[in-house]
Amino acid sequence: MQKTSEAHINQHSSLSERDKHVIWHPLTQHKTQQSTLPIVKAKGCTLFDENGKVYIDAISSWYTAVYGHCHKKLVEAVQKQSAELDQIIFSGFTHKPAVELAEKLISILPEKISKVFYNDNGSTATEIGIKMALQYHHNLSHDKDTLIAFEEGFHGDTFGAMSVSGLSVYNGAFEDHFLKVVRLKKPNGQNNDDVLRQLKEILIHHKVAGFIYEPLIQGAAGMKTYDKDGLNEVLKLCKHHQIICIADEVMTGFGKTGTCFASQQIETQPDVICLSKALTAGILPMGVTACQEFIYDAFYDDDVAKGLFHAHTYSGNPLACAVALEAVNLYESSEIQQQIQHLIEAHQGFKSKIEQHSNLKSVRHIGVILALDLDLNIERYSNVRDRLYQFFMTKGIYLRPLGNTIYIVPPYVISREELSQVYKALEEVLELNF
């Protein structure tokens, strides 16, 4: 009888009502969030709901759709590839899109990165980076079992990625099962010496295998930036102690910070770099964990057990590889590079306009990312966050505030008119009474 009743609901109810009966959404407390918004179409920077209302996607759907939704060249790349080779196991086989994408990535990744390992999302990209670091030392008979990560870092939701993430609201139920991780303060330019002293103490008391970090800016923490010179000193000390340095560029990769990779703004380069999100421009799920040759060499052995025994069914999926290759080509185009520069300049101008506002605690800007903190003393998931979210939605703008932090990461192709609409809504928020 229960099944029959639900079938009846499915036939006659809205998508939102039907969804409520069958779907468990991510990052959602369904008891307090009573409904979801059905989106039926997306084009450029615009989302369309089932009632015809439009919204500007001002965070590029979690930093993925940076060239806008349903970009013609990206759609065509998938269509063309789907007619030739859709899916093939990647253990024992290879194919042209995977080889060409790897060659292209290696040509633009930080120097010395020479091998690409395909996976299927950001969490697994960092998960494999962590496994590379730990197994590298294991294969070489080094007694190292601990990882270092910055306070408030976020690296994903699989177990290794959760272990190195510092946001307890995501991890609370699982912390007793984590890998060995030590948290390091973030260098802010004023505390760089203190951070180095803390790191030296960690190295005395722990057997450190790897250090994972988000270069320059922490996304889930609220777009918090930190000092690149301080980070460089941390990386140099880690390298001196043969600690594998893992750059999590899942969010920052492909232009978000003004360069293709945030690591390019830091003198000391990573041993491992993790990519996803804008890699395929949000068209298909995909992740990459790329590393230097010396790491690969530690797995290259007559002993089968020293191989990296990690696989995903959709590793190296031909469709994802094809669209990722087209996305990288699109990123490198003069048109997109000009749009990125225009967006950076617009953010600089808007930041200057509002930074003295009395209701603003702070505002920061790096590349195409703009974040502002309202001068409120609230918890991250208070009802203010929900009120902010709803306010922006009524203005036709999709954002996901984090507590009192509002951030925008618009598609590079956003028009001046659309960006002005976003800025106007941000200014209006500063005048609200909380």
Describe the structure.
This protein has 434 residues and is α/β, with parallel strands linked by helices. The protein has two domains: 37-70 and 334-430, Aspartate Aminotransferase, domain 1 (Alpha-Beta Complex), CATH 3.90.1150.10; 73-332, Type I PLP-dependent aspartate aminotransferase-like (Major domain) (Aspartate Aminotransferase, domain 2, 3-Layer(aba) Sandwich), CATH 3.40.640. It is 39% helix and 17% strand. The chain has 15 helices and 16 strands. It has helices at 2-12, 15-22, 60-63, 72-82, 96-108, 122-139, 159-163, 168-171, 192-205, 228-240, 293-299, 318-332, 334-354, 383-394, 416-430, and strands spanning 39-43, 46-49, 54-57, 113-119, 146-150, 180-184, 208-213, 217-218, 224-225, 244-248, 272-275, 287-292, 360-366, 369-374, 397-398, 405-408. Strands 4-12-11-10-7-5-6 form a seven-stranded mixed beta sheet, sandwiched between helices. A four-stranded mixed beta sheet has the order 1-2-3-15. α4 runs antiparallel to α12 (318-332), α5 (96-108) runs parallel beside α12 and α6 packs across α11. The longest helix has 21 residues, at 334-354. The protein is globular and about 60 Å long. The chain starts with a helix and ends with a helix. 40% of the residues are buried. The mean pLDDT is 94.
Describe the secondary structure blueprint for this structure.
Blueprint: H1 2-12, H2 15-22, E1 39-43, E2 46-49, E3 54-57, H3 60-63, H4 72-82, H5 96-108, E4 113-119, H6 122-139, E5 146-150, H7 159-163, H8 168-171, E6 180-184, H9 192-205, E7 208-213, E8 217-218, E9 224-225, H10 228-240, E10 244-248, E11 272-275, E12 287-292, H11 293-299, H12 318-332, H13 334-354, E13 360-366, E14 369-374, H14 383-394, E15 397-398, E16 405-408, H15 416-430
Parallel strand pairs: 3-15, 5-6, 5-7, 7-10, 10-11
Antiparallel strand pairs: 1-2, 2-3, 4-12, 8-9, 11-12, 13-14, 14-16
Helix pairs in contact: 4-12, 5-12, 6-11, 9-10
